[in-house]
Structures are given as C-alpha cells and as structure tokens.
Amino acid sequence: MKGICRLCDKDRDLRESHVIPGFVYKWLKETSGTGFLRFGLEPNKRAQDGYKLYWLCDECEGRLNDWETKFANEIFHPFNKGAIEKAAYGPWLLKFCASVSWRIMNLMLEEHDISHYPETLQDSALKAREIWKEFLLDKREHPDRNEQHFLPLNTIESFTDPNMPSNINRYILRSVDIDAAWGGKSAFVYSKLGRFIILGFIEMPQPRQWVGTKVHVKHGAVGASNYTLPIQFGAYLMDKARRSADIQGRISEKQNKRIEESFRKGMDRATNSESLRAMSEDVRLFGSKAFRPEK
User: Fold this and answer.
1) Distance from C-alpha of 294 to C-alpha of 225, rounded to nearest angstrom
2) CA distances from 217 to 32, 226, 295 (A)
3) DSSP 3-state assignment of 291?
4) pLDDT reading at 41 higher than 80
C-alpha cells in the first residue's frame, strides 16, 4: 500500500512491518510446547505471528533488518541456546535497540495512549521519538540523553522477597512485553524480547542507579556482568509478571483443553520445549503454587 514511511517521511510503497522483530516470534513458536502463540489482551486466540503495521518502505525496512540480523545471530540465538555467556558488540547494537524503542514509542503514540504521562513527560516522549528517528537515519551520532539500556536476564535461582510471583521464570524466559512506563521524573519505553530487555529512556534523572546496562555508541560487551539497577525496577518486573499471570488466568476452559490436547499430540516436542523448562524452574522454586500463579 502507498503511504508516508514513518522513518524517512517519503511517500512510498509501504511494507507490513513487525513492531517487535519477527525472529522473536519465530523463536517463541519453535521452542514452545505447542507451536502456537497467544498474546496480550486476547489470550483465547491462537496467533501465528506478532503485531505488524504498514509503517516502512523497503529501504527503511532493510535498514532495520540489517541490525536485527546482527542481533539475532550474535546475541539472541547464541544466548538462548546456551552457546555463549558474553558477547561483544559494535555500533549495530545501539542502532538495533534504538530501532525497537522508536517502534514501541510510535505504537504507543499512534495506536495506544500515553495520557497517563504528566504533560511534561508527554512532550519528552515526542522529543525522544524524534531523536531516535534522527539517530536511525544517521542524522545524529548518538541518542544524546535518550539512552538505550540492555539487560539480559536469566533464571531466578533463589529469592528472599515474599512477594515474588510464582510465574517469574516463565515471565523472564518466555514473555514478549512492551510498555511506556513512568514513575516520579523517570520515564522509559520497555521492550521485552524473551529474556532480553531494552529500555529506551525518555527521562533519566538518576543515571548512576543504572550500572552496566548502557549500550555504547561504538562497542562494548553484554552478558556475564554485574548489573546495578534501581530497586523500583525489580518491583516493576514483578508487577509485569503478575499482570502476565492475570492474562493467562483469563484463558477459557475450552482453550485450556485445546492447549492440553496440543501437548499430548506433540509429547516429544512438549517435553523438550523451552516452555516446559521455564515451568520446571518455577516448580522448583514454588512447588505446586507454580500452577496457580497469583494475580
């Protein structure tokens, strides 16, 4: 279809583009126990792919795809396979992270709503989107104060917080999630791609609270590092896990039977799936409570 490309602003033929990169959904399907996807506010519907919109021309889609391919091949798949614990990166990682944050910010501004933001933060969100766009088009050398932060997650081995949700490993290892979050004077775009989190900061009043997560312009390394995060972010992640459990709890009895049938029909697939591994990690921590995640 014809339209204005969201990135280059040119009137061109537009392609149907993923908001969250397509390789993430392909991985979820291939490593799931059933081979099907269920998302967000419609958990009773099976899905074959992630959300797509006619946003980009071929040239801009290709630009983003180059960075996606590097991330998928050098970080996403090797980490998920357990082949590596640390990876070096070049300028492509900051471009990739900014492209994801830019897409999610676009989605929030065009398809959803950020009226829950204070007015000053709404203005900051518009500015951040423009800065990320200019960076992706090589019109600026770096995203300036709208930094990108990257956090690889791993299995929760133990915990002391009594409020830890009993689906925490399933959320950490298997979920795809997006948000435009704020608290106090801080605001960020949250993109969760399986076990990897990208934070595109709209406002970051206390940068010293984030240690080891910033994606640098030219090069750096991710994984097997010590990260320091604000305690509020841990509470935020737990809240996101609870919301995920709440959505899963809305799956109807009919659909739960379909899920069980899919598991039985593909028993070999199910028993070797990453979905079952994530569930097993929650069972290890919480016992039978893992089957009844709190809402």
Assistant:
1) 31
2) 35, 20, 40
3) helix
4) no
